[in-house]
Design brief:
38% of the residues lie in helices and 18% in strands. By secondary structure, it is of the alpha/beta class. It folds into 3 domains: 254 residues, 2-enoyl-CoA Hydratase, Chain A, domain 1, CATH 3.90.226.10; 236 residues, 2-enoyl-CoA Hydratase, Chain A, domain 1 (Alpha-Beta Complex); 56 residues, no CATH class.
Length: 580
């Protein structure tokens, strides 16, 4: 039973995909990926070279320079929330300003061999001010750290709320004050928090580092409830912010900081030394002596697997073959609910469960000899996924959901089969689990199927989208038909013979379809924080390596069973077809 029956999965690209089709797929994805890289570069540039020069003129580093110096030299850097506030413009006294990435960098990277969450104010964007969604983005990063028990490193250089937009930043359930509650929750859970203050740290920015276990300040740094300008206005005192709350005050008098260091470089070295003192990773122990290994098939081939037309099918097993170590996989319950694929493989040497939608026609167990479309949740598949999700949670195995779902089955037969109840069981299983879940929107993420398969409302630790993901209640054409259903016949053709009325209905349906298509743009979702990050399919393997290893790093806070006593073995044995 200790043996996990991994078997080869997948095939070379040329063995299942016509070369011309692979070329078309790759070219279509290359266009999407080029746009992704272009927009990433735009966000990373902040407010541009002029503001970088201003930072350097003060003898300071930019935020990205600090982040690059903080991480281990060979460590990957996975930003979260790159496109928060993407495309939005904010009023600033008659001017319209943009806030790239909401003015804060949040990322997952490795420091001194440990995965950490970094929260760093972008000092090239209004001196690191907090914009609409900045607090929520910081809280999301803190949530990731809390769920995985990862150390948090704050690189603080924040001039407080961007005051023209304070009404969208200060109050509310996810307003700026909630950051400090998350600080407290992290502290209560024993998660290390380490802060470096590099410059401004005003009002909320001043509170953020205080609950950290260790606080370092450079000679240019200050932490104040109110800056010098406000003190001058309120109390007519001629002071500088350094006089009020610089390192001389907070390191040597108030005790609100622990150490003072001369500059950014020294502060980064000190922060790295503090991370080195935190508990080391348990991931290598959990590998059980099995070395990490690449998939047998190149992960960059994922960019060639997805057809440009979202209605066309692809083989999700070929996707998995380019994600798991050595392209070895244990498929669990393969004989039931064939519209869903469940199983276990290793990622970077560590166990991970996978759930994926199968595309294309599949056998219909309710009507022998017939087939039905994949990418939809039917009764058997829902029951299978629910049982598998519960077993992974019981065994402590992290679970990755690969979504390409058009929703639940509908109609009289679906209702008679009790899909509402079966779906509720799956939602319950995902709502109460403790083991980390991660969700990837490969393509379609539609209707309640998006919820049932651990969409963001069901608290995956991280949700990723690809540039071709489509997140909405239903497709644009379907919604247009539903909107104008009283004007259509049974074949969804316009019933009216009046040319003007027909033209009005056609125009209205086209407008609805276009609006929904625009809403499904993954950048819209990322702007609203309805997904955490947009990544190319070829980037999924490095992302999963980071997320899965981060799941196994901390120990003692959740169940982690060895494979000898996995519930998955019982589930597999008891549900095999009876021997004849």
């Amino acid at each position: 039973m200790a043996h996990v029956p991994l078997r080869p999965i997948g095939a070379p690209l040329s063995g299942f995909l016509d070369p011309e089709e692979a070329r078309r797929n790759r070219e279509a994805m290359a266009e999407k990926t080029a746009l992704l890289e272009e927009r990433r570069a735009e966000v990373r540039a902040g407010w541009g070279p002029k503001y970088v020069e201003r930072v350097h003129a003060k003898g300071k580093w930019t935020t990205w320079e600090r982040v690059e110096a903080l991480r281990d030299g060979d460590a990957p850097l996975h930003p979260l929330g790159t496109f928060v506030d993407w495309g939005d413009e904010f009023d600033a006294g008659g001017r319209k300003l943009r806030a790239p990435a909401a003015g804060v960098v949040t990322a997952l990277t490795r420091v001194e061999g440990r995965w950490v969450v970094v929260v760093a104010n972008d000092d090239t964007v209004a001196s690191g001010s907090w914009w609409p969604r900045t607090p929520e983005k910081i809280q999301r990063a803190q949530e990731v750290a809390l769920r995985l028990r990862l150390p948090v490193v704050y690189l603080v250089d924040c001039s407080g709320l961007f005051l023209p937009q304070q009404s969208r930043t200060f109050p509310g359930r996810t307003g700026a004050g909630h950051i400090f509650q998350r600080n407290s929750e992290l502290s209560d859970a024993g998660v290390p928090q380490i802060a470096g203050v590099f410059g401004d740290s005003i009002a909320g920015g001043g509170y953020m580092p205080i609950i950290s276990d260790r606080v370092y300040m450079t000679e240019q740094a200050y932490m104040v409830i109110a800056g010098a300008a406000l003190v001058k206005g309120a109390k007519s005192q001629q002071v500088t912010s350094l006089d009020i709350g610089g390192p001389e005050v907070h390191v040597h008098r108030s005790g609100c900081a622990d150490e003072r260091v001369p500059d950014d470089a020294a502060c980064i070295r000190a922060l790295r030394a503090e991370v080195a003192r935190t508990p080391s990773s348990g991931a290598d122990f959990r590998r059980g002596g099995v070395a990490p290994a690449a998939p047998a098939f190149p992960p960059d081939e994922l960019d060639a697997l997805f057809p440009p037309d979202h209605r066309q099918a692809y083989d999700v097993r070929q996707v998995l073959a380019r994600l798991v170590d050595r392209s070895l996989f244990w498929e669990v319950l393969p004989h039931r609910g064939r519209e869903m694929l469940c199983g276990v493989g290793r990622v970077n040497g560590l166990w991970c469960g996978f759930v994926a939608n199968v595309q294309g026609p599949i056998p219909d167990p309710e009507h022998r000899g017939r087939v039905k479309p994949g990418g939809i949740l039917y009764r058997d598949g829902i029951a299978k996924v629910s049982a598998f999700s519960r077993a992974c949670d019981d065994d402590g195995v992290p679970l990755v959901w690969l979504q390409d779902v058009a929703g639940f089955d509908i109609g009289a037969e679906a209702e008679e089969l009790g899909l509402l109840g079966w779906g509720s069981s799956l939602i319950y299983a995902n709502s109460v689990r403790r083991t980390p879940m991660f969700t990837v929107l490969l393509r379609k993420a539609s209707g309640a199927g998006y919820y049932a398969m651990a969409g963001l409302p069901y608290d995956p630790v991280v949700q990723l989208s690809t540039p071709i993901s489509r997140l909405s209640v239903m497709e644009g054409r379907t919604l247009a038909i539903a909107t104008y259903r009283t004007k259509l016949d049974d074949d969804f053709e316009i019933e009216s013979d009046d040319p003007e009325e027909r033209a009005a209905v056609e125009r209205g349906m086209a407008e609805v379809e276009a609006r929904i298509e625009a809403d499904m743009d993954p950048y819209r979702a990322a702007c609203r924080m309805d997904t955490d990050e947009i990544v190319a399919p070829s980037e999924l393997r490095p992302w999963l390596e980071a997320l899965v290893e981060a799941s196994w790093q901390a120990q003692g806070y959740r169940r982690m069973k060895n494979p000898r006593i996995w519930s998955l073995h019982d589930l597999d044995l008891l549900t095999r077809p009876a021997e004849t």
